[in-house]
Amino acid sequence: MSSSQQLDPELVPGRRSAGSARPSAARERILATAGRLFYGTGIRAVGVDRVIAESQVARMTFFRHFPTKDHLVVAFLESQADAGRTELLRVRDEEGPRAVLAWVADGVRTVPTSEGFRGCEFINTAAEFCDPSHPARRVVDRHRAWIRDRMSDALAELGHPTPRDTAELLLMLRTGAIVATSLEGLDDTGALERTWWSLVDVPGVDAPPIR
Amino acid sequence: MSSSQQLDPELVPGRRSAGSARPSAARERILATAGRLFYGTGIRAVGVDRVIAESQVARMTFFRHFPTKDHLVVAFLESQADAGRTELLRVRDEEGPRAVLAWVADGVRTVPTSEGFRGCEFINTAAEFCDPSHPARRVVDRHRAWIRDRMSDALAELGHPTPRDTAELLLMLRTGAIVATSLEGLDDTGALERTWWSLVDVPGVDAPPIR
DNA sequence: ACGCAGGTAGACAGATCCGTCTATCTACAC
DNA sequence: GTGTAGATAGACGGATCTGTCTACCTGCGT
């Protein structure tokens, strides 16, 4: 792990010439294992040795695909972010702006019920890497900003008077909800949901077409 | 660091017979250094070697006071929690229940402006130790529950119809605000504060004597 | 038939980290 | 003065972690 100082200026996922890393059975296995272990146990708490062992992969193979543990961390976060972005865009295009806000809110309501819930990937990672210039932090910041912008867009499209500030507040609320839930569970979904929608549905906005 | 399994059943701060640890210049220095380093750099990222060096203390002295790094972590959290509890009780006794809620909200508004702000001690620690049975997690859970209960008391005293659920929601909001602020800063204090007080001041509650 | 890219197994090096131990020194109470 | 509790400096051991390296194998396209 890089000691928060010498971080390669660009820690891009792929090593080869054009675009993202080429596919490879071994690479996919590593990424899947890392995802499971990093999310469930924390990044710093999982050594590359363990990832290698549970990926059923040779040591050299691992380091060929990910020259550094940091590379793996970034690739892991990037793949998660990618999946999230794809899903959110699909929801937006198929169900419209209000569904986007519902989808973000759902991250709190539905996900935590699943077994092995441990909060949000990105928030946890940010807490583990205190140096804001760490490559992993960059990915986190970028992803949160992207989500916030999409929420802002959706609010604007719904005619909300202060989309940017409200998106910031909603992301804040979601962040707190997901952290608090991962810490001590969530008793009262109702109050949270009422607050959420009362912030979205200020006077002057159309009646909700969803839910 | 204990590997999330063998954790002493009771990791009490002091080693001596009665009550908490006895005072000692060396002990205080260690605790102060640990506080600074743990908060600023993260617990897992700071080795005992560094704490020892910057505390200007002999290695043996360190391990006499804190037989294990985990002991130090717990002592550190406990001291922070103690300070918080003392302050909150003072505010409550001197300024009443509404001031309690203002004080909790202030943790978001004022603290983040200070240099070296890195969010909430307890939230960050919880993110670093994924095992909920880790002694450090116990301290975090206990402290959050205590704060929540005091908020609930305050709301009840103010005549709020659903003090418990609202306390849960407010703590959630504060959690999100402090995490989001430590990640990307806080642009709009107004929206957050309006939301906060609109949750406190439901119809049927007296006009605010504070602020 | 040949070359080569990608995979494998495991030894190895250097750093770091946690915790123990010995031997010595100091300050203070009795 | 003497004993004891607390502090000190620093060596040491074992574990763990990241990353390198050698030597070998396999499958495939040409």
Per the CATH scheme, the topology name of the largest domain in chain A is: Tetracycline Repressor, domain 2
> In CATH, what is the homologous superfamily of the largest domain in chain A?
Tetracycline Repressor, domain 2
The rough form of chain A would be described as: elongated
Low-confidence stretches of chain A: 2-20
* Total number of helices of chain A: 9
- Beta-sheet strand percentage of chain A? under 5%
Greatest interface and its participating residue counts = A-B, 42 and 43 residues
For the record, the CATH architecture of the largest domain in chain A stands as Orthogonal Bundle
For the termini of chain A, the CA-CA separation is: 46 Å
CATH class of the largest domain in chain A: Mainly Alpha
What integer is the average pLDDT of chain A? 87
Please give the number of β-strands of chain A.
0
What is the string of helix and strand elements of chain A? HHHHHHHHH
Write the layout of secondary structure elements.
The structure is a homodimer of 211-residue chains.
Chain A: H1 25-41, H2 48-55, H3 59-65, H4 69-95, H5 97-109, H6 121-128, H7 135-157, H8 163-184, H9 189-200
The structure holds a DNA duplex (30 and 30 nucleotides).
DNA-binding region (chains A, B): 47-66
InterPro entries (chains A, B): Homeodomain-like_sf, HTH-type_TetR-like_transc_reg, HTH_TetR, Tet_transcr_reg_TetR-rel_C_sf
Pfam family, one (chains A, B): TetR_N
Structure write-up:
- Two copies of one chain form a homodimer.
- In chain A, helix 4 packs parallel to helix 7, helix 7 (135-157) crosses helix 8 and helix 8 packs antiparallel against helix 9.
- In chain A, 65% of the residues lie in helices and 0% in strands.
- Chain A is mainly α.
- Chain A has two domains: 23-67, Arc Repressor Mutant, subunit A, CATH 1.10.10.60; 72-200, Tetracycline Repressor, domain 2.
- Chain A is built from nine helices and no strands.
- Mean pLDDT of chain A is 87; it is low at 2-20.
- Chain A binds chain B through residues 4, 40-42, 44-45, 118-119, 123-124, 126-130, 140-141, 144-145, 162, 165-166, 168-169, 171-177, 179-180, 183-184, 187-188, 190-192, 195, 199, and chain B through 4, 40-42, 44-45, 118-119, 123-124, 126-130, 140-141, 144-145, 162, 164-166, 168-169, 171-177, 179-180, 183-184, 187-188, 190-192, 195, 199.
- The first copy, chain A, binds a DNA duplex (30 and 30 nucleotides) through residues 1, 24, 26, 47-49, 57-61, 63-64, 67-69.
- Chains A, B: InterPro entries: Homeodomain-like_sf (IPR009057), HTH-type_TetR-like_transc_reg (IPR050109), HTH_TetR (IPR001647), Tet_transcr_reg_TetR-rel_C_sf (IPR036271).
- Chains A, B: This is TetR/AcrR family transcriptional regulator.
- Chains A, B: Residues 47-66 bind DNA.
